[in-house]
Amino acid sequence: MEERSLKVIDTNKTFFGKLSNTLSKILIPTKIGINGFVINMKRNNLIKSYETFSNYDGNDDNKKQSISSKYEEAYSLYLEAIDKHIMDSVYKKVKNNSASEFEKNAISNYYNITSLKNTEYVEYKFRKQKYLIELDYESLKISGKEKILNRYTDFYLTKMDSFYKGILKNYSVQLADSLKRNTSKKEKIYEKIFSTIEEYVQNIIPIKLEDDDRKELFNGIMNDYNKYQRFEAGKLDKKDIIEKKMILLGMSRKIFTHSLPLVAAEQCYEKLIQDTRDLIVSSPNEKKKIESYEMLMELIEEYNIKLLSTKVYWEKPSDREKYKKFWGKFEKAKKSKDKEILFLKREVDLLDDKDKNNKDILKFYKDKLVEYGAMRVVANKCRTNSKLIKKM
After folding, report:
1. CB 120 within 8 A of CB 177
2. CA separation for the pair 142, 134 (Å, rounded)
3. pLDDT digits (tens, 9 = 90+) for 120-168
């Protein structure tokens, strides 16, 4: 699709500029009408091609290829029509200061996406298609054309699923690369992953839940989805933000199993666990500290049940064998306190007590273990400068 500059130049300062703007405002409605007609025509062709493509179940490879080619061509022409509408109509309205807030936001988002082309081409490819289709879907909803909207929705959801999966798969690759280089870029990638999952949960799942056939696909995540909805309104503190991300990540294990590979999901869980450890240490009072600790236990349990217990490949065989022993004990544990002690011991085992950054959280863990009678404080004596010092 043709790319054009989105730089807006203020021409209001000259007589000819004002005259040009006035003429443009007169002509814009005509342009909108023409572009709208073309989009409707291309959309209708696309829906017919999509339905033929998705419903074909024959064995004729040549016919299947022909149907697929027609669908791809109709899809390409449809996207071009929407793209042209943005540049010919919306862009000019923004330039001439006659655009609505929606149109201003639309062109701003369009510019942000096109700016990715030179630096993040894979993301740009998915984001631009996703944006153009979303824009037309919203316009269809506003138009009130229920019949065409119902037919279009199936295509819309199919494409949205493929875009979100492609975007997350791309982030997973970036995350693996950034971890190898150990760059600060991984922090931004984590946020992109969580925000993309949230985007899907906010925008796509509600549409799918309106359809009884699709609704059944989400039975396994409805409990988490209902929990997530509690965080959609109101101001969130650090604990709320981490808890919301935990819920989103848990849902992603069912929605994006292959698009967010286990290795990427594992890094996301570890990121949330580390954030929660930091939150416990920095909590201003005992009540906040305990609330954060309880969330940590829930997060660690989810991490083990939804991910580590199903992990097949381990870099070190010794780590796999050690985890098998831990998981065996966990499965036998009947009381929540016994499970909590197992988690605390594993946390102490995982964290390096030589790392000063872990000193405070390790002390917190050990104090908990002493409180539960799972660890003893042993008196230790050592001689320094000929004086006897007692350490606890």
Report:
1. no
2. 12
3. 999 999 999 999 999 899 888 888 889 999 999 999 999 999 999 999 9
State the Cα–Cα distance between residues 206 and 149, nearest whole angstrom: 16
Pull the structure tokens for residue 165: 């999966």
* Size (the chain), residues: 392
- As a whole number, the mean pLDDT across the chain is 85
Q: Dihedral sign for Cα 268, 118, 102, 157, please.
A: negative
Q: Residue 32's pLDDT is what?
A: 43
Question: Residue 15 pLDDT more than 80?
Answer: no
Tell me the mean pLDDT in the region 178-204: 86
Tokens representing residue 333 in the block: 């544990």
16 strand-pairing partners? none
Q: State the pLDDT at residue 292.
A: 96
User: CA 374, CA 391: separation in Å to the nearest integer?
Assistant: 20
Tokens of 217: 């696909």
* Nearest one of 339, 331, 345 to 374, comparing CA atoms: 345
Is 117 in contact with 3 (CB distance < 8 Å)?
A: yes
Sorted by where each begins, the domain ranges of the chain are: 1-144, 171-308, 314-392
Report the half-sphere exposure of 10 (CA within 13 A, side-chain side).
Answer: 2
**pLDDT of 2 higher than 80:** no
What per-residue confidence (pLDDT) applies to 58? Answer: 87
pLDDT at 352: 81
Q: Which two tokens stand for residue 227?
A: 């929990």
CB 321 within 8 A of CB 305: no
What are the φ/ψ torsions at residue 30 (nearest 5 degrees)?
-65, -45
Contacts of 152 (CB under 8 A, 6+ apart): 43, 47, 137, 140
How far is the CA of 255 from the CAs of 205, 209, 222, 249, in angstroms?
A: 10, 14, 12, 10
**DSSP assignment string, 291-359:** HHHHHHHHHHHHHHHHTGGG----SSHHHHHHHHHHHHHHHH--SHHHHHHHHHHHHHHHS-TT-GGGH
3-state secondary structure of 210: coil
